[in-house]
UniProtKB/TrEMBL annotation:
Residues 60-140 form the Cytochrome c domain. Keywords: Electron transport, Heme, Iron, Membrane, Metal-binding, Transmembrane, Transmembrane helix, Transport. Gene3D superfamilies: Cytochrome c-like domain (1.10.760.10). PROSITE patterns: CYTC. InterPro entries: Cyt_c-like_dom, Cyt_c-like_dom_sf, Cytochrome_c550/c551-like. One of its GO terms (molecular function) is metal ion binding. The lineage of its organism: Bacteria, Bacillati, Bacillota, Bacilli, Bacillales. Pfam families: Cytochrome_CBB3. This is Cytochrome c domain-containing protein. The chain crosses the membrane at residues 34-52.
Length: 140
């Protein structure tokens, strides 16, 4: 009898947690224990990640130090005007530019612009400028 009473109480509780909307039963039951665990874990992970993450401005950049590879990455801004292989397009060819202008004049053009050439390297570091120069030397 007591077991039957418990069953009736449980059925009554389940009925209290059900709404009928457009002929469909919608329950308001408990969140499954597995999802409670998952949400708790994600919350703890998010807080730990936020506290331990390095700010973007303190991360190493591609152009840390002078390297041909970093210069190759920076040369992506040149492609629109100087062509996909830097052999010329709207702007002149960059192949042999370091030999023609010299490193100092090239840096001056990159930092200050010239004619229709914008000052793309105005905010570049010395390492970034050096990387671009080293990359262009490989194209000669």
């Amino acid at each position: 009898m007591e077991n039957n009473q418990r069953h009736n109480d449980k059925a009554k509780q389940e009925q209290e947690h059900v709404d009928v909307v457009n002929g469909m039963k919608q329950g308001h039951g408990r969140i499954p224990k597995f999802l409670v665990f998952v949400y708790t874990f994600l919350g703890i992970w998010a807080v730990a990640y936020a506290l331990g993450a390095t700010p973007l401005d303190e991360r190493e950049t591609l152009a840390a130090g002078v390297s041909v590879e970093a210069g190759k990455g920076l040369a992506g801004s040149c492609l629109a005007c100087h062509g996909a292989d830097l052999s010329g397009g709207l702007g002149p060819s960059l192949i042999g530019t370091i030999g023609q202008l010299g490193e100092e004049e090239f840096e001056n053009v990159m930092r200050n612009g010239r004619n229709t050439m914008p000052a793309l390297g105005a905010d570049w570091s010395e390492d970034q400028m050096g990387s671009m120069i080293e990359y262009l030397k490989t194209l000669e």
